[in-house]
Specification:
Length: 121
Amino acid sequence: MEKDALAEHLGIKLLKVKPGYAKATVKVTKELLNGAGVTHGGAIFSLADVVFAAASNSHGPLALALDVTIHFVKTTREGATLTAIAAEDNLTKKTGLYRMEVKDDNDTLIAIAEGLVYRID
């Protein structure tokens, strides 16, 4: 994850990684806002994707996303701190299924996502 240039560019900080789990945070700056003045969906997705990547690669073999679905349920604005967690729902030799949640400073659900990875030997 140290090589994730986009995460670094966006200011995403990986806080915790253990097998099948990851947690990260990002402070919403004006650069992460969309034209409507709320946090850009791409920034929220990127935060969820970082924890997805960290959790799915925590077992060792390279894991690459096959599919990710996200649902945005609440908006946030500049100054908010978003925290995302990824938790493993299912693990096989070749695939892994993960659930990601993004919450704000008040522990309010902002987005929920699900991702499927393929593990490369």
